[in-house]
Amino acid sequence: MKRTIFALSALALLASCNQEPIETPIKQEQTTTIAVEVTPEQQTRTYTEGNKIYWNATGEQLNIIYFSDMSSSRRQSATHANYTLENNVATFTADLSTTDGATTYTLGAFYPYAYKYTTSSISLTIPQEQTPSATSYDPAADILVSKEPVVTNGLPDKIQFQFARMVAFAKMTIKGIGAGEKIEKVVFKSSTKPAGVVEFKVHEAGTLDNAKWYNNYEEITLNMGGRVATGEDDVWFVTVPTDLSGTEFTVDVTTDKNNYTKTVDLTGKTLNFKRADIATFSVSGLTVVEKPKAYKLLTNAAELTAGDTFVICTKNSASSTAKLLSTVADGSALKFTESMTVTDGLEILEVPATAAVMTVEAGTIDGTIACKAAQGYLYGNYDSESWTSKLSYKETKDAEASWTFSLDGSSHATLYNQTHGRYLNNYYGSKFNFAGSQGTYYYYIYYIDGHSGETPEVPEVTPLATPVVSATAAGNAITATWAAINGAKDYTVTCGTETQTVAATTATFEGLEYEAEYTISVVANPADEAANTASEAGTTTATTEANPNASTEAQTITFNFPADFPAGAASGNSVGTLYSGDVIISSTGSWRVDKTDGRDCIYIGRTTSNELRIEAQNGKTITKVTLTSYAGYYVDLKAKEYDGYSTTTFKNATTAEWTGECKSRIVYTPAGNSHSNIASISVEYK
After folding, report:
1. Rounded to an integer, what distance in angstroms lies between the CA atom of residue 242 and that of residue 646?
2. What is the pTM of this model?
3. Cα within 13 Å of Cα(264), Cβ side
4. Which of 124, 164, 289, 402 has the fewest CB within 10 Å, making it most exposed?
């Protein structure tokens, strides 16, 4: 057996039903009007411009599936990261293994590259979360497949494929979003389940005829990144080919100021998302729902007065693992809610349904407050004879439901019950109870002022002048400059996905990607909002310099239990998929949730066939996996890495750390010495 390096060439074609295919090496399907090129905002490879398709100068990679007539085992190979691009012809190279004595080879290919542990039938996911640009869909959601396998005598110097696009495209125009509002996300929902998986076989004839599409998810979430609305906004997305005709769909829009929703009845109407085609449609007549007010951190006890609404939180810093006092009993105590987010501005924007949302009233004892939730008044009771305490809610406002309230200099809140001489207590960060003292697990008040009054009408105003922007790059940093705008208080500057608000007329963005083009926009914000609105965005582009270290920055995904338990996790149930993105983390083990011995973890028995899988996706490479046991227990697993087929065994380990470079998968199975109790999983990849 020997290794052969051969070339693949790729050219984008005009998409016209009247034009013959151009005779160049790789031919794209002609029924699409999607173009392939780099967008300035995202450095991705796709956007629309007429009917032309372009290859990006970097970042393209195919997966080649092949086998010989001397072997039934199919192999796969990624094209090299470096390739040439001339006159829009991309020439790739790949290393393939030849088989001695073989006379013919069968080859197929697909995009984007993803290592597959089985090549009999290949599945690629059309994601639920997508990030479109202003002019095109998210290229990470695109899927291209060779229409028919190529059979050759030996391995030639160059292979020709004809690609078919497997996904459908939607260009949805939303009319009625307030001009100037910043669109945070758009959710498209339909019972036809527009997101899912396409399954195909590139090594058999009739790839398109035999391909299968699976509609798995009803929602597609489109992350808009704060795009400024114009009132008539195009939103692109990618779907599984599916026909919505005669059904209905719902569009939910979230901006910085409002929520919008519209359910569209398609009775007697046609809306069909066809493979390799663009469905163009519009949505108007949206219902506007003003966003609920944010709860803000209370830093001055005097500001909490009768009529205010508040929640009790475990964090006073930006966090996605903060929890609130709930209305759900935990024996004689009250549970936390599931994890929610405290923003960088120390606000809570969305409150879980089980949270205790309380209104301040005067207590029955002078100088005290009562905390009224929908379930009643928060109260504490203590039985000195049996030494038992209870924290709950009651209909009657009395001395037990009256609390003295105070804050210290760090905003630590204290609710003290004079009747029983006891405190509302955050019990070891696990629940709230009624105790004789407060420990070091603090809690905090987030509130909404109940006396802010009506919002005054805003008079008609004029926009500020548009800034004229220039930008220069140094290494992986870009500095933007502009002239001062009369009437401006400060400026909102955006570079790619990063945003700064500055009072000066310059802004620098560091830590960007090397050799990447960025669009920089500057919006002038008014000093007098009664006279002016924000300006239109002034824009320019700049390209960062080459990376002097030529290294790839690693990313890390970490799950800590119980903080990151998914919704609905219950003891004894199978775990399933924890994360699906550039890596997939899944387990056939079971949960241990609120067990009597205190374990909150993934459990894998020592004699079971259960496993924990870490799989690389989208061309990523796994470089480190760390499993940490629950306190007092162990990780007792065997790790098999499928790139090099190497095995590592961890026995009675409190921390099991695998390091290396893996582009396929790592599978953990019982090592047989003891049960495994996994309290955290951390995956580093690049």
Report:
1. 43
2. 0.47
3. 23
4. 289
Q: Are strands 212-217 and 195-200 parallel, antiparallel or unpaired?
A: antiparallel
For the segment 107-136, what is each residue's pLDDT rounded down to a tens digit? 998 988 999 988 889 999 999 999 998 888
Residue 447 Cα distances to 96, 230, 289, 292, 371, angstroms: 63, 33, 21, 13, 12
Pairing, β 278-283 against β 168-175:
parallel
Give residue-wise pLDDT tens across range 204-227.
998 888 999 999 999 999 999 999
Sheet holding 477-482, edge to edge: 469-474, 477-482, 506-509
Torsion of CA 624, 629, 634, 636, to 10 degrees: -30
Tell whether omega for the bond before 149 is within 30 degrees of 0, i.e. cis: no
Residue 447 one-letter amino acid: Y
> What domains are defined for the chain?
2-288 (no CATH), 295-448 (2.80.10.50), 462-543 (2.60.40.10), 555-685 (2.60.120)
* Per-residue tokens: 48: 């629309």
| Residue 186 to residue 129: CA distance in whole angstroms | 10
Strands lying side by side in the sheet with 122-126: 122-126, 195-200, 212-217
Q: Return d(Cα 416, Cα 405) in angstroms, integer.
A: 7
CA 295 vs CA 146, 541, 628: distances in Å: 53, 38, 35
For 428-457, what is each residue's pLDDT tens digit?
A: 999 999 999 988 899 999 999 876 444 434
Token duo for residue 209: 């005829």
Res 37: pLDDT: 29
State whether residue 404 is helix, strand or coil: strand
Could you tell me the CA-to-CA distances from 504 to 483, 484, 509 in Å, in that order? 10, 8, 14
Rounded distance, CA 89 to CA 398, Å?
Answer: 80
Q: Which helix (H) or strand (E) holds 578?
A: strand 574-580
Q: What is the CA radius of gyration of the chain?
A: 29
In terms of residues, how long is the chain?
Answer: 686
In angstroms, how far is CA 406 from the centroid of its own chain?
Answer: 39
* Reported confidence tier of residue 36, pLDDT bands at 50, 70, 90: very low
Percent of the chain at pLDDT above 70?
89
Strand extents, DSSP E, 293-421: 295-297, 309-313, 319-322, 325-330, 333-336, 340-342, 347-348, 358-362, 369-373, 376-383, 388-394, 404-407, 413-417
> Do 278 and 170 touch, CB atoms closer than 8 A?
yes
Q: How many CA atoms lie within 13 A of 104 on its CB side?
A: 7
pLDDT at res. 635:
94
Q: Do residues 438 and 425 touch, judged by C-beta distance below 8 A?
A: yes
With H, G, I as helix, E, B as strand and everything else as coil, classify residue 207: helix
Strand order in the sheet with 444-448: 347-348, 295-297, 444-448, 309-313, 358-362, 369-373, 376-383, 388-394
Q: Is the pLDDT of residue 41 over 80?
A: no
CB-based contacts of 21, cutoff 8 Å, min separation 6: 13, 27, 30, 162
Name the pLDDT band for 547 (thresholds 50, 70, 90).
confident
